[in-house]
Amino acid sequence: MKIETRNTILTIVLGIIIIGLTYWLYDSLITPYQEVKEREAMTEKVRQRLVDTKDALIQYESVHETFPPTEGGLDSLVQFLKTDSMMIAMGDSLFGSTFDVFNPDSLVYSPQPPYPKFEYALNDTLRPQIYLLTIPGSDDAIGSLERTTMRNAPNWN
Fold it and tell me: Which of 35, 59, 145 is nearest to 107 (CA)?
C-alpha cells in the first residue's frame, strides 16, 4: 500500500473518530443539563400548585372565618371551590397559571408523577390559626404548625 493511500485512510478514520467523540462529548454535557432544567420546571409547577392551594385556603378562611379542619380539610376545600359561586366564577382567573382549564379536584394534587395528594394539618389552638401544607416526599411546604410568623409563607423563599 502506498503511503499516500495509507495516510488518506488514516485521516478519514481519525476524522470519523473525532466526529464521534465530539458528538459523545456534546451529548454527555447537554443531556444532564436538559434533565436538570426539566426537573427545575417541574419543581416550579409543584410549588405554584402549592401556592394556588394556599390561595384557595385563604379564600376559604375569608368566607368561613376558619381554615378547614385537619381531617378531610382538603376535601372540604375542594367542595368549597366547587360550590362557592365566587370561586366558580373566578376559578380560571385565580388559578389559571397552573391549569389550562381550572379543575378544583386536581388543585390538591401534585402535578409531578406519581401525583400525590398534598398533606394538610391545622393548628387551631393558636390565634391566628395556622396550618401546614406539604408535599409527600419533598421538603417544600407552606406554613408552620408552631410559628405564627410562618403563616401562609412558603419555606423555599
Answer: 59
